[in-house]
Amino acid sequence: MRPRVALEHCDMCNAELAAEHQHLIDPLSRQLICACQPCAILFDNPGETKYKSVPRRIRYLSNFRLTDAQWDNLRIPIQLAFFFNSTVNERIVAIYPGSAGATESLLSFESWGEIAAENPILEQMEADVEALLVNRVGNTRDYYIVPIDECYKLVGLIRTHWSGLSGGTEVWREIAEFYAKLKERASEVKNA
Known about the structure:
By secondary structure, this protein is an alpha+beta fold. It contains 5 helices and 12 strands. It has a 7-stranded mixed beta sheet with strand order 9-8-7-10-11-6-12. A 3-stranded antiparallel beta sheet has the order 4-3-5. Helix 4 runs antiparallel to helix 5 (168-185). The chain is globular. The relative contact order is 0.16.
């Protein structure tokens, strides 16, 4: 007998799902749920629903402007973070991944207005469902607008593979692979 393959199911209607499938998010709890395409379509239009459909587009921001001083003013303790417009909190929320999971930065963001003014592409992010994903590890300076589920995928990847104080070689290999795959799927866009 062959071992049974675990299948994912739509959290709305219980239909079987392919490995790559749609997600919905509850902006209040920030909980992601899996959805089949027909169920996801029900939440594509903005309105008064509990869930929002997470888009699939990935945009690589080739000429994003963020100086080291602006980054330092955000006071994010690591060089990986994502930022999204939360309709629940009525502000930009910054989250950084770590060995314990996702940590929300509770610091003020005086410099965010300056960053947004220099990068008008940020106005195109869909609230709650898209995020600016920043990778400034080492000499890397990669910036993406991604579906929010990709950000939480990175958080899970780090939490799963982290070992010791610095994470270990496996986690950094996994992070590099995550960003390589992200870049393959991304379309390149420039600031207006």
